[in-house]
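**Polypeptide and fold**
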Amino acid sequence: MDTREYIKTTITELSTDIQVLFVANVVDKTVIKDFRNTPDSIITEYFTEDEYNQMLLAIRQNGYHVNVFFDEDEFIKFIIKHESSAILSKCVVFNLARNGSGLCKKSLIPSLCDVYKLPSTGSNAYMTCLGRHKFHYNAILKLNGINAVNSWSYTGRGWLNGMEPPKNSKLIAKPTYESASRGVRESSVFEYNTDSMALLDSLCNEFEQDIIVQEFISGYEVQVPLIIGTEPIALQPVAITMNHSANLGNKIITYDLAFSEEYNFTTYATINKDISDKLVAEAIRTAKCLGMENYGRVDFRVDTNGGYYITDISTHPYLINHSAFAFAFHEMDFEYKDIFACIIQLAYQKKRELIF
């Protein structure tokens, strides 16, 4: 069964008696719980009210009743209050919350769902936490023969195990467990020499965490969305475009660019079908290797010679209208609401199989 048929079949098995508990952090509705002294606020991980309403409407258009929670605290209180009632028996938790700071902040809701045996979207608590630690999952992928980009860890006390990049190599530095391009600036791409320590020390102090330093790949940035039932299924790879060009050269999605969303998408197969097929295969291998669940995304940089390297993964990628997921579904002639129907149905089916 091809990808489109799989999604179509999943959607036709829709259980509209499901009650969706929708947990998401929204600008001006959720109190920010990050007190670190950095100009790169976690607000880029929040949704604007318009983005939130896009998703809420799409979920409701599938016939679901939806309870909304703008903060993890509200959701936790609701679960504790109703833990002995029949209300939770037909619930699916659609979790997009990630308030606060720390490596495991995004795994709070998945962990609670595991405890109460509640079906939830995205990966389990362990995988969600692993998916935040760029250096750890990168090392696991490399060990299993998957083409992850060369990476090193700078700890603030120096290079981990004394292993550092080659001198004069072109690199990119990122906080190890942030997302939405937090800590990624134009200055994050640099040529490694003795003066580089000031940049790395500054990032360590600002974000209070280790810094992952990766070999910088000039060229294309390509995202591969995944739908994951019993097996991972990859959607068509989606290339980021800037100024109408998919070949970004040395350009990157900085914090400011992620906030303004001044970039677009195109189908990468129209640029290089052979490499596109290889990205699909590598993304599926990645999902299987790490144990990703329900849905996710694998991000690559692809050089002009066709070399491709995994740079990031996401266990709960963005599903707003301006996202690789929405673009890929649209290219398959699905409606926006179908994304949510597919993800919710897969989460509900899988959890029922585990329980019964």
The two ends are 26 Å apart (CA to CA). Residues 336-355 form the longest helix (20 residues). Residues 113 and 239 are 34 Å apart (CA to CA). The chain has a mean pLDDT of 92.
